[in-house]
Amino acid sequence: xxxxxxxxxxxxxxxxxxxxxxxxERPLLFLPWQQKGEQNRSxxxxxxxxxxxxxxxxxxxxxxxxxxxxxxxxxxMHLLLLSVACVLVAALLLAVPAWTQRKQPISKSFFARLLxxxxxxxLIGVLGIGFESSLGNVFPQGWEFYAITYSLFLVLAYxxxxxxxxxxxxxxxxxxxxx
Length: 179
What we know:
This is DUF2818 family protein. It comes from Paenalcaligenes hermetiae. The chain crosses the membrane at residues 6-24, 44-65, 77-98, 110-131, 143-167. By secondary structure, the protein is mainly alpha-helical. It has helices spanning 3-23, 43-70, 76-100, 110-135, 143-156, 158-176. It has one domain (3-176). The chain is built from 6 helices and no strands. The longest helix has 28 residues, at 43-70. It is globular.
């Protein structure tokens, strides 16, 4: 895979993944607090599930990075197929909380959506570092790089934010106003 293809793959994946938390009502993460509409569990069980799930997410991110950065790629198609496999594994892992909460709808708060966007930023960042290391040397980055890329990721999430919070609220206000 050339550098241009890797950049465009990351941009498209970033655009899609930044907007997913705003379009999907089901949770993408196990959080240690109870959300509105979620089943009742003890505090200890919530924290245990949160810690285990976060550990699994970190392990999958580390494995994605190791696999993409340390594998000798025979062809660009091999790199692309392996990166698609990593994205599919991450998508399946993020779908586990939604599968466990199928029965009742959950009303996610803005903070929960922001946490989901941040986790997706981390997974896309790991994929980008893997691409960079498979295509050449990995350049050391300071905090400024991560602050700028996180800000750009939030800008890519803006269409989902507008549709979720601004347009839906306007539709509700227009239908409830007296004619």
